[in-house]
Design goal:
Elements lengths: L10 H10 L7 E3 L6 H6 L5 H7 L13 E3 H15 L4 H6 L8 H8 L4 H11 L7 E8 L2 E8 L7 H20 L7 E4 L8 H7 L2 E4 L4 E6 L12 H13 L5 H14 L5 H7 L4 H9 L5 H19 L4 H7 L5 H12 L3 H8 L7
């Protein structure tokens, strides 16, 4: 008879799980425009108090825009709102209720920026003051500009509803910042195509791509130079100083955010990431070692989550996913994914296709 017992987890494995564990209290999202959700739900006869009770959420949740919700409760809330209202695309509908001002300090900074491009950069750089768990990114692709959002933490339930709300909010914000005449050229959603895509077509009125690598809005890049009407340069400087002084992001989360955006741009070099974080690579490695982890641990964590999202919610091939994660080819990605998940990407996809990435 085999009397062996499983080996105890190593100190390093314990450290890694401690840093990247699934404690739902570690990641928060400022409510902002979510305080408008109850009014939208009541239009459809939803008992908001009962819904919050059933979700085991604070009944006073929607009282203050500066209050926060656990990020992993955000998808649950939006999913329940869609189910109880009878409108699966309610998150998309709710995103229309947001204005730039709903982003609080970060929104005020954007509204007082000299140009649309500066406003979007401010939203991207300081977004973490409003929410942890996902990051805003802005990039220019020749004559096309792109504003997008990507979730980088593991096990977020009903992530597709978060992406729906965010893309709708981004559309609203661009319309507000750019003014008359602005129109997107493409909206890309990193979620499976719903049974009824009509609501998306009616709202965005442009070419849609479901199952995309990232969730983003593309538009002509010349809009980035457009001045923001009513912007106050002096107030912009004061708000920028305040936002910078409020930056208390922990190193690992800052690295996770930077890695997620860098993978979108095709960068995963430790030296380049250290430079973005304004420190030497050796300093970065030393500070990570103090927490019992390495740069490779953080990169693997981000790659694993992105891989699961793309496998579950897109039709991208394994080769395309490997390229999106910065691998030289499919083989090293497959080996890494087996190490992370205990299954091949194909097997994992068959078991989880079209589902939220939550365990």
């Amino acid at each position: 008879m085999n009397t062996s017992v499983p080996a105890a987890p190593s100190a390093r494995k314990i450290a890694v799980e401690s840093v990247f564990g699934t404690d739902p209290n570690l990641w928060r999202q400022r409510l902002g425009g979510l305080v408008k959700l109850p009014a939208r739900l009541r239009e459809f006869g939803v008992d908001v108090a009962q819904m919050l009770e059933d979700l085991q959420l604070d009944p006073r949740l929607f009282e203050q825009p500066n209050a926060t919700i656990r990020y992993r409760d955000l998808g649950r809330l939006l999913h329940a709102a869609g189910e109880r209202s009878g409108y699966p695309t309610l998150a998309l509908m709710h995103g229309r209720d947001w204005s730039v001002a709903d982003a609080g300090l970060v929104g005020s900074l954007a509204l007082n920026s000299p140009t649309v491009g500066t406003a979007l950069e401010s939203l991207a750089v300081h977004h973490h003051l409003n929410g942890q768990g996902g990051c805003v990114f802005v990039r220019r692709l020749g004559e096309v500009a792109e504003l997008g959002y990507a979730v980088y933490i593991r096990d977020v339930p009903h992530i597709e509803h978060i992406y729906d709300a965010i893309i709708s909010i981004g559309f609203n914000w661009l319309t507000e910042l750019c003014g008359r005449g602005w129109e997107p050229t493409e909206v890309r959603l990193s979620r499976p195509q719903p049974d009824d895509a009509g609501a998306y077509r009616r709202w965005f009125r442009t070419r849609l791509q479901f199952g995309a690598e990232v969730t983003s809005i593309r538009f002509p890049a010349h809009w980035l130079a457009r001045p923001i009407e009513g912007a106050d340069p002096a107030r912009f400087r004061r708000l920028e100083e305040k936002a910078t002084a409020s930056d208390h992001l922990e190193l690992v989360e800052k690295l996770q955010r930077s890695l997620r955006v860098s993978l979108i741009s095709g960068i995963s070099s430790g030296d380049l990431l250290a430079e973005l974080l304004a420190m030497h690579r050796r300093t970065l490695s030393r500070r990570l070692r103090l927490q019992g982890i390495t740069f490779r641990d953080v990169l693997d964590e981000v790659r694993h989550e992105v891989a699961r999202q793309l496998l579950a919610m897109s039709d991208l091939s394994v080769d395309e996913i490997a390229a999106a994660l910065g691998y030289a080819g499919a083989s090293p990605f497959v080996r890494s994914f087996k190490r992370w998940s205990g299954a091949s990407p194909g097997q994992w996809r068959r078991e989880n296709s079209g589902a939220s990435t939550a365990a």
